[in-house]
Each structure stands twice: as structure tokens, then as C-alpha cells.
Amino acid sequence: MSLTDTAITKIRGMIVSGELRPGDRLPREADLADRLGLSRNSLREAVRALSLIRVLDVRQGDGTYVTSLEPSVLLEAMGFIVDLHRDDSLLQFFEVRRILESAAASLAAQSATEAQIADLAALLDDLGEQPSVDELLANDLEFHRRVAAVSGNEVLVSLIETVSSRTQRARIWRGLTENGAVRRTIAEHRAILDAIGAGRADLASAAMTMHVAGVESWLRTQAQLDDGDG
């Protein structure tokens, strides 16, 4: 283990043990390095690494603080990793999205309040009967975001938002090229909402699975056609 890795492990230990809590300011560099038995250079490298993954927040002229450690903050770094993936991994993102979103729909059906169900219904009603592809996509992204939020699981919300961003281009592509994609998406959203409103976790999960799998299946077909052309 490198000296920097050792420093990271020791700082992580302070956070895990509760010695450093969200929002706490780290001791002065010289004091912390001496206390942990580290060189100031190793400590500095560790702080830099932990700030990149949003565990620490380095404020110029003020000090270094532990972030809120909220899932949405810690998973921001994952979004960067997702963006670096190649197009040939897109189907894998859809597979993961299908699993995560079906779980979110199931949880939402178990915990949704009348106000939350009314909010989802109002969102779908705002779309109108013949939306453009851009309008549909914006509504689609917001619908999925709100369903995830209703699940009450913040980690799940952050994971879905991260993975969903990687599939956005394919969803636009399908909406522009596949006959009936807009109408089908609207109907599928209604089915998901109906299941959540009825408190049917099994139906909500199944409806969401079919919805996400529809885009996934279409994308697989396109990939096969492209391979055939080649």
C-alpha cells in the first residue's frame, strides 16, 4: 500500500468512526499529519484524492471540510465514470437501469402518498395528447425522477439519475425513428402510475420493467441491423 493510500485509509477511518462528521473541518495540515504519523505531502495527496470523489471539500483560504456525504454528492464521481464508457456498453446501462427502476417503482407503490400520486398524474396530464419528442423526453426524465424520489431511497435515486443520463440519447433516437414510440411511452407511463396508485408493488415493478425493456429491446434490434449492414 502506498503512503497516499495509507493516508486515505486513515482519514476514512476517522470519518467512519464518527471522529469526523459531515460538515466538520479537518485539523490543520501539520497537526493532522503529525497525529496520523504521515508526511504532509502524503496527507496532501490523500486530501486531493478524497476531494475528487467528493468526500472532502477543499475551500481555498478557509480549510478542508467533510462534505455532507449525501448519496447524491458521493455518486457525482460515478457520473464522470459513466460518461467515459463507450457506446458498445450502452445496452449494459439499460440492463442496470431496468433493474434499478423496477425496484424504485415497487418501493414507490408501497409508500406513495395521495399527494405524490396526484403530483405524478399532474405531470403526465401536462404533456398533452401530441407532444413533440423533446417535450416527451423532458416529461419522461422527470417522471422517472419523481417515481424514484417517491421510493424514498436516496441512494437508489442517485444511481438511477446517473445511469439514466447515459441512456438519454438512445431514448431520443427511438422517439424520432420508431412509429408509435411517443404514444406507447405515454401509455406505459400511465400503466406505471396506475399500479403505483393502486399500491400494487408487483404490477408497478412489472410495468416499469416492460417500459424500460421496450427501449432496450429496440436498441438491440438496431444493433443487430447495424451489424447486418456491416
From TrEMBL:
Q: Where is the signal peptide?
A: none
Pfam families in UniProt: FCD (PF07729), GntR (PF00392)
Determine if Glycoprotein is one of this entry's keywords.
Answer: no
Q: Which one of the record's GO molecular function terms can you name?
A: DNA binding
Q: Which domain of life is it from?
A: Bacteria
Q: Which UniProt keywords apply?
A: DNA-binding, Transcription, Transcription regulation
The record's annotation in SMART domains points to: FCD, HTH_GNTR
PANTHER family, sorted: TRANSCRIPTIONAL REGULATOR, GNTR FAMILY, UXU OPERON TRANSCRIPTIONAL REGULATOR
What's the name of the protein? HTH-type transcriptional regulator LutR
Name its species: Actinoalloteichus hoggarensis
State the organism's lineage. Bacteria, Bacillati, Actinomycetota, Actinomycetes, Pseudonocardiales
Q: Its encoding gene is what?
A: lutR2
